[in-house]
Structure formats: C-alpha cells, structure tokens
Amino acid sequence: MTALDHSLVASSPAAGDEASGGIEPPLADPPRTGVGRRWRRVVAMAAAVALVVEAGGYAYAWAFEPEGPRPFGPGDVTVELDIESSLFSAKEIEVYEGTRVRFLVDNHDPISHELIVGPPSVHAAHASGTHPKHPSIPGEVTVPPNTRGVTTFRFDEPGEVEFACHAPGHYHYGMHGTVVVVPRG
Predict the structure, then answer these.
(1) 8 A C-beta contact, residue 71 and residue 96
(2) pTM score, two decimals?
(3) In angstroms, rounded to a whole number, what is the distance separating the alpha carbons of residues 103 and 82?
(4) DSSP of 13-40, one letter per residue?
(5) How far apart are CA 60 and CA 134, in angstroms?
(6) Residues 136, 46 within the same domain
(7) How many structural domains is the chain composed of?
(8) pLDDT reported for residue 42
(9) DSSP structure class, residue 20
(10) Tell me, what's the pLDDT at 53?
(11) Containing structural domain, residue 178
(12) What sign does the dihedral 52-54-56-62 (CA atoms) show?
C-alpha cells in the first residue's frame, strides 16, 4: 500500500468500528409495504372530493340564489321596523305592487317617534307642522317611548314611497327611508 492508500483507509473507518470514532452510515429506509402510500392517496382523494363538493355548493348558490332579499308580497304582509337611537332599522324596503303592509313599529328610545308613509304631499304636510298624535289613518302612527305601534299602507303603483319620522329634527337626523314598489310579474 502506498502512503496515499493508507491515508484513505485511516480516514474512513469501517462501519460499526466504534473504537476508531467513525460515523456509521445512515440506515436505509425500511422497505415500503404500500400501506403508507395507499393511506396518503386515500387522504389526498378525500380532501380533493371535499373541495369539489364545497366548490359545487358555492357554484349552485351563486347560480340559483337571488342576489338579495326578495320583495314582500303581494297580498298582506307584516314588516317590523325597530327604532333605536332615533333611526329606523331599515332604510329601504321592497314590496310588489298590490301589497298591503302592516308596519309593526318598536320604539326602543326614551322619546316619542312617528311613522308616516305616503306620497310627497303627505310628508310636506307633516314637515311643516307638528302633530302630537296621529289618529287612525292608514300610513300614520305615533309611537310613544318604549312601546309598539301599528299602521297599514297599501302600495298599488310601482315607484318609490317614502316613510319618515317628522318629529322636530328627526327627519334631518336621518330618520327616513324608502319603500320601493316593484311591478308583479
């Protein structure tokens, strides 16, 4: 052996030669039985199926569900409006023409409010004067603090009809909204 050959032998001890301080080569991977691979395939397939089912659900909802709530009616319906912090809970309500709406108004404030529904002439009359109480007229109701009031209004023609509270300063504060009346069919 030459000097070069001797140095190669000394620097790479034989496997299992602990006395020489050598490093054992890594153990080979255990033989694969196929069970691990099959299990990974089953899990991957289940995940893929779950994703396809979820995506299909979203696609179905997107294609067949309406974009927003459908209009109320036609016929007789009840719409609940809450009042809190001098604001109505809805700014816009959609109904089909020919719908009679029973407005159920819950006043959660410590002050009186009103609900006035109707054409611009009705709102102009209420905006220019103060009515402490409203008689039993369709589309008008006074709602004392922490109580509930009821009024009805029939929407016969397509277009927009305003609802509002005309107590001093309330309309300008934002206490009004619109009933959008859409044609049937």
Answers:
(1) yes
(2) 0.62
(3) 10
(4) PPTT-GGGTPPPPPPPPPPP-SHHHHHH
(5) 49
(6) no
(7) 2
(8) 74
(9) G
(10) 66
(11) 75-182
(12) negative
